[in-house]
Amino acid sequence: MQPSKTILIVDHDHAMLINIARHIQSIGYGTILATDAAEAISAVRHSNPNLILLNVDFPPDVAHGGGPFSDGFLLLIWLRQMDEAKTVPIVMINGDDSPAHIDRARTAGAAGYFPKPINFDGLMAMIVGKVGEPIPQAQETSPSA
To answer: Whole domain around residue 102: which residue ranges?
Structure first.
């Protein structure tokens, strides 16, 4: 059975993606992982996530000479223009929790901002607060003999 609520995690750091996903899955949500803007946009269009965790910093795409989405803030603005993501809560994650970064995220449409290093108890509480408790799936039972 698939979890009833799904969180899209967008970060270029594969180890961070896996670590965040494991914590989210441990409290009953499904996860979708994206390492760049193209994957994130595709996931939003095809998977209807209940919440998006979006890293602020992405390294420039050297193979393509950099690009507009080497900045998570630009991806946030793009997502907010998509019909599929207009109402989805987006929480920015970054090591810089300065007031300027937090204000920039809110101005661009973020529903929250979470600092790195990640306090996973705090992040899980924030996720539950934004999307509600995961709904337990009914256990399949076999008929009694």
So the answer is: 12-131
